Amino acid sequence: MGKALVTIVLRLVVLLFALRLPFVQKYITDKALNIYSSKVQTPASLGGLYLDFRSKLVVRERYLENQESDTLVYLDRLNVSANVLGLLNNRLQIEDVSIYALTGTIQRDNEGKFNFQYILDAFSADAQPESSSEPMKIGVDHVGIYETRIAYLDSYEGIDLEARIGDLEVSTDKFDLEESIISVDYLLLQDSRAYLRMFKAAKGTEEATSDNKGESGSEPFQIDGNFAELQRVKFRMDDQTGGMSISSEVDNLQVEIDSLDINAQVYLARKINMENPFVSLEFISNNADSVSASSEDVGEPIQLTAGAAEINLNKGKFRLWDHSKEESPGFDPAHMWFDELSLRTEQVRYENENVFARIAQVTGTDLRNRKRLSEFSGELAYTDSVTFAKGLKATFENTHIESNINVTYTVKDELA
User: Fold this and answer.
1) Cα separation of 353 and 384, whole Å?
2) In CA terms, which of 83, 196, 228, 410 is 20 to 30 Å from 394?
């Protein structure tokens, strides 16, 4: 047993040494490209790959072209550091994955076909039958993504996402592919921006029901986290199905995560701190002459739960504009535009278009009426059956308001 182990280790050392030799690297690169090109019949290139003595795999200048002669994926450099000796125990522990200058586009057409499906089809004939041996356990400690541009364009589901990532650092507590669990200990995102557009899906209701049934037998990933920080990040979302647009920028955002379930669309935080944020919410009328999508493009509302037990905001800007309602003089909750905002909330929750907020204190400048808001507090709610403001206090310069408001209705449209 000892002799066999020494033999395996020596062979591994020889392999690591060989992979550092230029002619071996060129041979492996050419061989890999020839196999890929012969199968897929689309252009590809690889600047080089090697494995150094620190067990770091380096891939340089990887390029794949799709069947329309456009760039499918370009990768300037990929570094992977791992404990290769763990392979002797059927475990691969990846200590670090660093991705530099990745550009990629994933598209899904109206029939539900992805633009990389031809690659999967080309290699499907060579797929090996499932082995009865125990699968290898894979762990990942850290992932870094730098100077990356990605796009996910899905007309079948009605989702377009485009993102530019400056720096993204992710450290994990647990990464278990076998149990489908990813637990993120710390996430840092810097100098990035993203745009999300949701629109009427090409698939019909029957197809959506069929898809959900088909997925019920598979085990979705469980993803949770502890702490996230964003620095100099911009985000915009246009929801054409619900007639809502959100734009946001933030210099610094820190989130202590309470509950995170991406599969169930649950995003809850214990505490959120924000510095110099800008948030704009616009609600668009669905009338024919509105700037929003036409009525035939409106689908089901988003099923989402999000909120925080505590929010602290400093030096913020906030704009809320409901285009379906006429603007009123004075303070108008459907048309607000504030600068120099400071905010402290004790509870905020959004659940399937129902909103509840317990606001401890808000101060700022009302740009629309050119007045200073020196106090605003109270409990606010907007649900399917009631809208209320309890213990509402608001002070604009020489005007002070204290009120309790309660409005009940059968459907929200009665408020229009």
Assistant:
1) 8
2) 410
